[in-house]
Amino acid sequence: VSFVGKSRTYPAAERALVDEQITQFINSRRTCAVATCDRRVGFNHEDHCGGLCKEAGSEPLEDETETTVGTIWMPGFQPREKVEQVRNCASLPRDFVDEVVLNVANLLLNAAPQKSCSDKQSGDMNTWNQGESLSLREVAEHLNKEILKKLKSEYGGLQTLLKNNHQVFEVLNGRVHIRDWRKEKPPSKTKPEAKRRLSAEAFKTRLCWFFIHHPDGCSLPSEACPYAHGTEELR
């Protein structure tokens, strides 16, 4: 972060002193704590930090004016690009994301112990399969190398992708669960009006993943589910 001012806050004659103070300030906060650079003798930090922060400007300078004006406070500094690349999985192709979500969901569902016929016949109506929870590492071990390679180029990788798809998954303490919407707390009445309005406006604007893909369908009835059970419900 830099602050750019329109006018000098110190006399021009103090430029060299302020330059030195700025250099000391930066060096005191750099990863490899090095002494203040003295460019006039071509100070080289290679011996102090493995050559990672070799100071530029070891050649003799033409005159003292150039020493002041041309001082490099932080040699090797590279500013980031003007347009920052989005790498939070949000720009991944939709079909790729859908494939990963379906693979992980099936993995969790198939890991769940099957309910016996006697359980079903005994009148237990709660047969909605929430699947088992698996660690992120276990999930990653079951994904093919091409998927993992693509996710590694994104910040947060697999975990970020699963958290982005919060309709389907819940990631807690490094473990992945299929979200059971019956356990979700109803919207708080104490929420600010703006948030309540946004929540109401988003109701039924996307298809319910469980209604389409889950073998038992959605755990909620249509009127209680915030997502659309079929295209006819879409708003």
TrEMBL record:
Superkingdom to which the source organism belongs: Eukaryota
What coarse category fits the chief subcellular location reported for this protein? cytoplasm
Residue span, C3H1-type domain: 202-232
The GO annotation for biological process reads:
tRNA methylation
Presence of keyword Lipid metabolism: no
Subcellular localization, as worded in the UniProt entry:
Cytoplasm
* PROSITE patterns per the UniProt record, alphabetical: ZF_C3H1
As its record notes, the protein acts as a catalyst of:
uridine(44) in tRNA(Ser) + S-adenosyl-L-methionine = 2'-O-methyluridine(44) in tRNA(Ser) + S-adenosyl-L-homocysteine + H(+)
GO molecular function, one example? tRNA(Ser) (uridine(44)-2'-O-)-methyltransferase activity
Q: Which GO terms describe its cellular component?
A: cytoplasm
Report the transmembrane regions from the record: none
Q: What is the enzyme's class at the highest EC level?
A: transferase
Query: Which InterPro entries does this UniProt record tie to the protein?
Result: tRNA_uracil_MeTrfase, Znf_CCCH
Q: What is its EC number?
A: 2.1.1.211
Q: Where are the zinc fingers (C3H1-type)?
A: 202-232
Q: Which UniProt keywords apply?
A: Cytoplasm, Metal-binding, Methyltransferase, S-adenosyl-L-methionine, Transferase, tRNA processing, Zinc, Zinc-finger
The record's similarity note reads: Belongs to the TRM44 family.
Q: Which PANTHER family match?
A: TRNA (URACIL-O(2)-)-METHYLTRANSFERASE-RELATED
Q: What is its biological role?
A: Adenosyl-L-methionine (AdoMet)-dependent tRNA (uracil-O(2)-)-methyltransferase.
Q: What is this protein called?
A: tRNA (uracil-O(2)-)-methyltransferase
Q: Which organism is it from?
A: Chloropsis cyanopogon
Q: What is the lineage of its organism?
A: Eukaryota, Metazoa, Chordata, Craniata, Vertebrata
